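Structure tokens please, single chain.
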Amino acid sequence: MQTTAKQHDERIDLRLSSDMKVLLARAASYAGMSLSGFLVASAAEHAKKLVAEHESLTLTPRDWEAFITALDETDKPRPKLAAAIQRYQARRGN
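Here you go.
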């Protein structure tokens, strides 16, 4: 079975205290990972959670019902909108 290795060509350099490095190295060893692997995995997990918090919307049941109702009402006739369209077309000569 042939496997392809992902090419890692981006780099991030960071500076931290020796105490922080020791702590992170200990955590990485408990996880059975290299320090780099641990940092990348931890950062990726946190980043995914943060992005999900900012890019998703959670509605209460009441808000969900209001949303669905608003969607259902899009097909209802809108006399004011129809009149505005007619006025616009009359001005344009259509």
